[in-house]
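Record 1 of the preview.
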Amino acid sequence: MPIDYKETTEPSYYSGTKYGYSARKVVEDFDLSYNCGVAVSYLLRAGKKEGNPAEQDIQKAINHLHFELDKLYKKSEQ
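->
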């Protein structure tokens, strides 16, 4: 049975507390690439998800930024 996307909720660690912006909406609004979008999401949730220390999320963001740089370097070499 398919999941009704309208009924699923985003975890609170992906939303800001002051204005309520969600990481997904920020990424979508800025039309970020996959790797940059994932990196932004990890940075925005850093230290907020239970069981995931901020350092771990920041390192994951850095990894995705490296993936994006690798992609850009390879593209510029063609």
